[in-house]
Amino acid sequence: MHADEYARLSRHARVIVAPDSRPDTLRALVAEADVLVVRSRLPDDIFDHAKRLKGVVRHGVGVDLIPMQRADALKIPVANMPGSNTASVVEYCINAMFHLSRDMQALALRDPVADWAGRRAAADGTLELNERTLGIVGVGTIGGALARVALALGMKVCGLTRRPETLPDGVGAVDKPTLFGRADVVVLACPLTPETRGMVDAATLAAMKPDALLINVSRGAVVDTAALMQALQAGRLGGAALDVHDVQPIPADLYPRALPRLLLTPHVAGITRSSMRRMSRGTVDEVLRLLRGERYANPVNPQVYE
């Protein structure tokens, strides 16, 4: 949490930061908590150990870290911070597209004399985003904002969404086979649900263009990681940028070494100085509302108030 907002919260409540995210640690700490602020996965039975919990606030957007069905059953209100990291995630996706299409580090002159010819030759193999097709899986707040930026860059954009009527102007609604077969770049920005878990499997990857790029800012489980690594190693995919992973932090054996077309980042797409301040400010606002006996401004499960 941003230091200024942590200080503001501390003026109104005794703040306890969990020393780790192990289930037993969280179960013990929640027993005396009035409010729970979440940035790590909660055990499925966490609420069974809460004696006086008034509510939960997600310091972020995705609520798959929280056992929502149990919260609903116990009438525990949950809030999140919609839109707080939209700009950060969109900029990450654009940055990843540029990195995999036209890596400036690979073109940068380390020796202005000796590198000149080699770097110019390397530029012949780079690609523009202009006129390429972007396919977005999950065209919600983040996907919609990304679509508008991509259109401004001259890209063609199609989207896979449950609500095609909400797509931004210029974005065509397509089904899954069409999106993965047509797109030069696929961005996964969907929530993790039973329908999206494992949706990018070996067959889906095989249907993609051999120079297509895959960018995942959703959840690691949306992609069959083993199948993706096989496609990259066999040269059947142009590259991938993964900000989310099956296991976090990443274990040593999750990815093969020395895959030049694989960009790995530690779940930071939504983290910038600006987004952390916005998330923290919104989180503290919601906690204080709860402590005053008010309703959340951004409830995820508003039905618990009924």
TrEMBL record:
- InterPro entries listed in its UniProt record: D-2-hydroxyacid_DH (IPR050857), D-isomer_2_OHA_DH_cat_dom (IPR006139), D-isomer_DH_CS (IPR029753), D-isomer_DH_NAD-bd (IPR006140), NAD(P)-bd_dom_sf (IPR036291)
Keywords from UniProt, A to Z, are: NAD, Oxidoreductase
SUPFAM superfamilies per record: Formate/glycerate dehydrogenase catalytic domain-like, NAD(P)-binding Rossmann-fold domains
Q: Where is the D-isomer specific 2-hydroxyacid dehydrogenase NAD-binding domain?
A: 96-269
Source domain of life? Bacteria
Q: Which residues does the UniProt record annotate as the domain D-isomer specific 2-hydroxyacid dehydrogenase catalytic?
A: 7-301
Family, according to the entry, reads as follows: Belongs to the D-isomer specific 2-hydroxyacid dehydrogenase family.
Q: What is this protein called?
A: Hydroxyacid dehydrogenase
Q: Which organism is it from?
A: Bordetella bronchialis
The organism's lineage is: Bacteria, Pseudomonadati, Pseudomonadota, Betaproteobacteria, Burkholderiales
